[in-house]
Structures are given as C-alpha cells and as structure tokens.
Amino acid sequence: MPKKNGRLSVDLPPSLAAEQRGEVAILRLARPEKRNAINDTTVLGIETFFAALTDDIKAVVIHGGGDNFSAGLDLSDLAEANVVEGMQHSRVWHRVFDQIQFGKVPVVAVLTGAVVGGGLELAAAAHIRVAERSAYYALPEGSRGIFLGGGGTVRLPRLIGVAHVMDLMLTGRTLSAEEGRTIGLSQYLVDDGKGLAKATELAERIATNAPLSNFAVMHVLPRIAESDPATGYMTEALMAAIAQGSEEAKARLKDFLEKRGKKVLRG
Ligand code: 1HE
Question: pLDDT at position 209, please?
Fold first, then answer.
C-alpha cells in the first residue's frame, strides 16, 4: 500500500492541525498566541482526532506549535463555571485523555517551553515524552484556586511519585527539562528544535512493531503494574500466549530464525 503523506482528512478546530507522514499521524496544538492553552473546543478536537485514526496509522506524535507545548487549561473556560459544570468539565478531559492513553496506537509527545497544568496532564497521557531543553514543568493550580482536573492526580504520581507531585502542586514551582528528565517526566531530553524529529523517529520505530504487541504494552502493561503480583503474572502469561500464538508472531520469529529479521538496534 502506498504510504500517505500530507494533511489528515479529519475535521478539526483551528486550534489543532493534523498531518500524516507514512504510518505516523502528527497532531499539532495550533494556538501559539495563547501558548496552546486548551479550551473546550480543543479538548473535543483532540477526541475527534483520536477517534478518526485509520488502521494505516500505527503511531501518533503530538506537539505544540510555537515555543510552548501547552499552558494548560484555558482559564477563561472555568471562570464562570459552577460546581456541577466544573465536575462535568473535568470528566470530559478524563474521557478524552483516556482515549490517548488507552487508544489504538502509542503516542509520543514533544515537550517544549511551557508544559503547565493541563498541558502536563496531556503530556502524561502520552506513552513516550521527548523533552527539548526549553521545556519547563509546573502545576500552578493552587495559585489559581483550582485543582488538577485532567487526570493528573492519577497519572503523574505513577510517573514521578506522590512526593514530587505534592511539591509541584503546593509550591507551584517550576522544574527544568533536566530535572524533569531526572525524575522521569520525560524519557528523552534533546536539544531545542530536535524534539519533533526525535519523536517522529521513535514513532516510526514503534510503528514497525507488531500491532498486537504495541496494544498489549499500552493496555495490558499498565494494568499489570497496578495488579497484585500473582494476578500480574497470570495476566502476563495470558497476554504472552495470545501474542505468541498469533500468525504475525510466528512469521516474525521465522524471519529472525531464517536471518531475515531485524537485529536489536543499538542506541
Ligand atoms: C492563556 C493561558 C491560559 C496563556 N489560559 N489564556 N495555566 C496557567 O496557570 C498558566 C498561565 N499562563 C502563564 O503563566 C503564561 O502564559 C506562560 C508562563 C505559560 C507563558 O508566558 P508568556 O509570557 O510566554 O505568555 P503570556 O503573555 O503570559 O500569554 C500569551 C497569551 O496567552 C496571553 O493572552 P493575550 O490575549 O494577553 O495575548 C495570555 O493571557 C494567554 N494565556 N496561558 C488562557 N492557561 C483540566 S484542569 C487543568 C488545570 C490547569 O491547567 S491550571 C493551569 C492553567
């Protein structure tokens, strides 16, 4: 099948732009004049994008246009909200970000400039984070009189531990890209301007895996990590058996044994 390149045919709001490069779809937050602050339209547009992924897309890259990934929630969205609306608003973010974490294909996020509040929550829903040196992280919700609402209290402690989240939330302080890399906010740290290329390279590599293996990593690994060990081992055994029983695994193992398969990549 010919590999497609160009604009993705999905109807997105002006705050988002999507393109396809071969088997990788690239979603850009396209509201740089507001530091890619995420308003309701944008959240729903992210949902539309992930729902529209066709079977030829094997991985996604998400990045921010301009100098920043995202300044988080568009604060004008919540200014007039009552308690019920606040709760509903948060639940929409949960639904959409769940579609990223537990969607069809792995997602690589490129972190630049402000990765703040809901921007950090969005980044945490991705599977791999590539930070440029310009990236900085903060959770300023406390200073705004609000609280995390995009799944950050669930996802961030699993990435960096409760103590670091507590520190960020109570002090509102900023972590540098280097500090973020050290505590596990990003798996990669690259020079400014190199993030999108690195993330695309990783996404292209991910796209060569068997889809069932990627699916298992996204959907089964996090559940096993949350399980008691006995349940985890049994779930792992079941998943391993399902994966290795597949035609794709048989063909890939045969390729390796007959010297056609790829060797493990160094670096
Ligand atoms: C915004 C937002 C926003 C920028 N909502 N409009 N997030 C925050 O509390 C972060 C708020 N933003 C900032 O602290 C700064 O904008 C930044 C440090 C991120 C960047 O500073 P800078 O100097 O590059 O930009 P700027 O001049 O502050 O912002 C440019 C414009 O974007 C300006 O609008 P303009 O009409 O005056 O040009 C800003 O008002 C606008 N802007 N950030 C609305 N966030 C699901 S719950 C999640 C809860 C949260 O995410 S709380 C954290 C919210």
Answer: 96
Ligand 1 center from residue 74 Cα (angstroms) = 7
Q: How far is the CA of 34 from the centre of ligand 1 (A)?
A: 6
Does the pLDDT value for residue 9 go beyond 90? no
Q: Which domains does the chain have, with CATH numbers?
A: 5-207 (3.90.226.10), 211-257 (1.10.12.10)
Instruction: Give the pLDDT confidence score for residue 3 in this predicted structure.
Output: 60
> How does DSSP assign the chain, residue by residue?
-PPPEEE------TTEEEEEETTEEEEEE--GGGTT-B-HHHHHHHHHHHHT--TT--EEEEEESTT-SB--B-HHHHTT--HHHHHHHHHHHHHHHHHHHTSSS-EEEEE-SEEETHHHHHHHHSSEEEEETT-EEE-THHHHT----SSHHHHHHHHH-HHHHHHHHHH---EEHHHHHHHTS-SEEE-TT-HHHHHHHHHHHHHTS-HHHHHHHHHTHHHHHHS-HHHHHHHHHHHHHHHHTSHHHHHHHHHHHTT-SPPPPP-
Q: What is the pLDDT of residues 204-248, one digit of tens each?
A: 999 999 999 999 999 999 999 999 999 999 999 999 999 999 999
77 pocket-lining for ligand 1 (C-beta < 6 Å) = no
